[in-house]
Write a structure and sequence with these properties.
The chain has 20 helices and ten strands. With about 475 residues, it is mostly helical. Helix 1 links the parallel strand 1 and strand 2. The radius of gyration is 33 Å and the shape is elongated.
Length: about 475
């Protein structure tokens, strides 16, 4: 019976969960979930000088917000230090590693000389007699890498990638202070955790060759590697903050929905036909490493916003009000919340990120009496504005059914028909009174959103203002 699929996400605790790391985590999570396997989380904190607990917390929070749960408590690479040292000793005892007594400045000089001569750097201690070692001298432990032939990494995305062994020097696997280095620690941890599928960025492809050599020296099975091209900006350059390469918490705080961001990240480097809108359940069912793209994906914020707008429109009205209320400067009382709930179906179309709610719902949030200034004051100065508002106010007062915009539109239509007018002649005055010129949907929808009491009160305010600005004859 084949081993259970086990994937992992292994971020360094030096920063927040950036967009590329989030995509890597998503791919690993989907692969594990789709194959009924395990998704594990490991914090690669071997370098304690760069450890940042706030960053660890932010990474965990970001993963949770994206809905990427893990199957066992997160592990710390640093906590496994003794095991790394044990395996280094195992390699040493088996002749696959050796003690190197070169001082750092001596190593730098020898490496520079090798580079100048276009040859492989090799420590003089590689084949030295251990008895020649200076007593009490500090040493590193180097992996004795093969010098001939090539290391072939069979990668799911990149195909067979061949590395000439002459290009690799002997990697330090244990520093002189006893600390393990990255490539050794990763191999040991992945093996001990049972990780058999490694999906990560293609900036780790060279590491894969190094790590495969260590796996083979230890006689351990090599996991299936899938190295995904990194995300680029729209200009084709390596992704940076100027392209919008932020931590996922920044996207959350800007008003992106987690499902929308996950859907977008899924499509950055993976495809399922022409499908763009892919639910979480579909992603789990469909995702496989065979469909990972070999070409770099490009981050397009406009496309992300368009996708986010789709997910916002898919929210129920109650969910929409709940999620957008966090982006309003004011605390909503129950009356205003009810108005916003009624307005939700009409203003969802105007919101691509949740933070747009302030402008999209401005007409709902206005307080009475309306402050008529600037753009809103202009239509009320026109002759006949007061009469129009007064007539509409009288018509709407007689309307008993305010449960749909349809009945209110019908009442406005009967008003213009009876007077031989058109909506274009009454709209500016009504909008000034009802919305103070703020962006708003159709008049029937505005009236319905505000509710009978508020709408009639605003029209009454507008009538008084119009009479003050332009007395009617």
């Amino acid at each position: 019976m084949p081993d259970q699929v086990t994937t992992r996400f292994a971020p360094s605790p030096t920063g927040y969960l950036h967009i590329g790391g989030a995509r890597t985590a998503l791919f690993n999570w989907l692969y594990a979930r789709g194959h009924k396997g395990r998704f594990l989380l490991r914090i690669e904190d071997t370098d304690r000088s760069r450890h940042n607990q706030a960053a660890v917390d932010a990474i965990l929070e970001g993963l949770s917000w994206l809905g990427l749960d893990w199957d066992e408590p997160p592990t710390s690479q640093f906590a496994n230090r003794d095991r790394h040292i044990e395996v280094a000793q195992q390699l040493l005892d088996a002749g696959h590693a050796y003690r190197c007594y070169m001082a750092p400045d001596e190593t730098d000089a020898a490496r520079n000389a090798a580079r100048a001569d276009k040859r492989r750097f090799e420590s003089p201690w590689r084949n030295a007699n251990a008895e020649a070692a200076p007593a009490e001298a500090p040493f590193t432990i180097r992996f004795k890498a093969p010098t001939e032939g090539e290391t072939v990494v069979k990668d799911v995305v990149q195909g067979e990638v061949r590395f000439p062994n002459s290009a690799f020097d002997d990697l330090i696997i244990l520093r002189s202070n006893g600390d393990p280095t990255y490539n050794l620690a990763v191999v040991v941890d992945d093996h001990d955790m049972g990780v058999n599928h490694v999906i990560r960025g293609d900036d780790h492809l060279n590491n894969a060759a190094r790590q495969q050599q260590i796996y083979e020296a230890l006689g351990w099975p090599v996991p299936s590697f899938a190295h995904v091209p990194l995300i680029h900006g729209q200009d084709g350059a390596k992704l940076s903050k100027r392209h919008g390469a932020l931590g996922v918490e920044a996207y959350r705080d800007d008003g992106f929905l987690s499902d929308a961001l996950a859907n977008y990240l899924l499509r950055l480097g993976w495809s399922h036909g022409d499908d763009e809108i892919i639910s979480r359940a579909q992603a789990i069912e469909w995702f496989d490493t065979d469909c990972l793209n070999k070409a770099p994906a490009r981050l397009d914020i406009d496309k992300l916003k368009a996708l986010n707008a789709h997910y916002i429109r898919s929210l129920s009205d109650a969910e929409f009000v709940e999620q957008t209320s966090h982006f309003l400067e004011q605390t909503l009382d129950e009356t205003t919340k009810a108005r916003l709930h009624r307005a939700a179906p009409f203003i969802k179309e105007r919101v691509s990120v949740l933070s747009d709610i302030g402008s999209a719902a401005a007409f709902v949030l206005l307080a009475r009496p309306l402050e008529i200034t600037g753009k809103a004051a202009k239509p009320l100065k026109k002759s006949g504005a007061a009469a129009i508002i007064s007539g509409v106010l009288e018509t709407l007062t007689d309307v008993s059914d305010w449960t749909t915009p349809t009945t209110l539109d019908a009442a406005l239509q009967s008003f213009v028909d009876a007077r031989g007018l058109c909506f274009g002649q009454i709209g500016p005055a009504l909008r000034a009174a009802l919305t103070a010129g703020k962006p708003a949907p159709a008049l029937g929808e505005v009236l319905y959103s505000l509710g009978r009491e508020e709408a009639l009160a605003r029209l009454s305010d507008g009538e008084k203002t119009a009479l003050t600005l332009q007395p009617q004859t």
